[in-house]
Amino acid sequence: MISYRKKACKILAIGLCLPLLMQARAGAETRFSDPYSRSAIVSDMDTNRIVYEKNASQVAPMASLTKMMTLLLTFDAIAQKKVDYKDIVTILPSDVNRVGTNIKLNAGDQISLEELMKGMMIVSANDAALAISHHVGTTYGHFVENMNNKAKEIGMENTVFYNPNGLPTSVNVGGNVVGVENKTTARDVLVLSKYLYSTYGNQLTAITNMSSYINPGKAINEENTNPLLPLIANVDGLKTGFTGAAGYCLAYSMKIDKGNGNDSPNRLVGVSLGASSKENRKLASYNTLVYISSHYKTKYLYKKNQVIDRPALNGIPFAKVNLVSNKDLYLIQKDSEKLKKTIKYNSVDILADGDQPLANLIYTDDKGNQVASFDISTSKPLSKMNFFEKFLISLCTIIGTIFDQVLDFSNGPRYFI
């Protein structure tokens, strides 16, 4: 099946590439734009740079992208050994749902949790999401409460869940029944997507990279709803969604291999909300990945513990310190852009938390927008320095505190008491 996907990529991609090829001929410098999505956002995993966004904080219906949170809570429960992939789930009458996509569950059916997870993510089965939620959360209400709590925990600031599958529903407000849908933003869906990949990457792609869902007992053999899987070999997720109010939505991701201008492997993660058709949803996400993977490369900046700067500590000319990063630094960068590097020095309370970073390495684009910021500090944290090293730092701190009206702190970091 993987070889089929690679061959299909070469054939199916030609027609989709034509608009981009025509755009590239129009001039050497091109700026990407997604005309198909109401809101969209794209970032990479390793450097967290937002490469493109459009109305990314606009609140909109979430549709079946909801099921990503349902899956996340299920992964959490499995990791905590509260449930297991092999658990047999008995389908309740309230799980049976023929609205939208489903896997034909009937009351009394017994099916493994793993099979439900596959049905929910590969073909977006609404009945599977309901069955998962009552198995993992004991009740629908408790599970939805956990969904909202998890959203807050991971930083989804504008998301509200009412159910585990994303279908339109209703709630009672002051005695009145009001129609509602789960709400989110493209930015929040990006947060959720990246959290899933960083926390449960292997478990996630074991499901979302499957080309089809097959259940002989239910006479089901359906292709994955993700339209990018047969088009781009390195795409391995993530989730489609649709309701009348939400439009056609997609959270998607693509592995970036080392080589072809990339100094390190990486991953692009994107979100498209509110496209007007399945075809436009496909075009929005496909064109985005093709353009960004072609024009943006993951470039090496500094190795772990390589000296980045050697400023004077506390303004004392003879007290120089080496500032380094505690990890290799990379940045995803457009082929035509020139980034400016600056270092912002910090003042650190040596008694409160002396291990805080002494400076930030900042990169900005030609419009002054910050595209990356990295913490840098001494190669050895203050708490792990030997007695003599701590003595010298303490001496510099005392001198800096006494002569703070005389010394120049603008060109280096500062410890203070």
Q: What can you see in these coordinates?
A:
With 417 residues, the protein is an alpha+beta fold. 33% of the residues lie in helices and 26% in strands. It contains 9 helices and 21 strands. It has helices spanning 2-25, 66-79, 113-122, 126-137, 140-154, 186-208, 278-295, 350-353, 387-402, and strands at residues 39-44, 50-54, 60-61, 88-90, 110-112, 169-173, 176-180, 183-184, 212-215, 220-223, 235-243, 247-256, 266-275, 296-302, 323-324, 329-334, 340-345, 347-349, 359-364, 370-378, 414-416. The strands form 8 sheets. Strands 2-1-13-12-11 form a 5-stranded antiparallel β-sheet, with helices on both faces. It has a 4-stranded antiparallel β-sheet with strand order 15-20-19-17, with no helix packed on it. Strand 11 (235-243) and strand 12 (247-256) form a beta hairpin. Helix 2 packs across helix 6 (186-208) and helix 4 packs across helix 5. The longest helix has 24 residues, at 2-25.
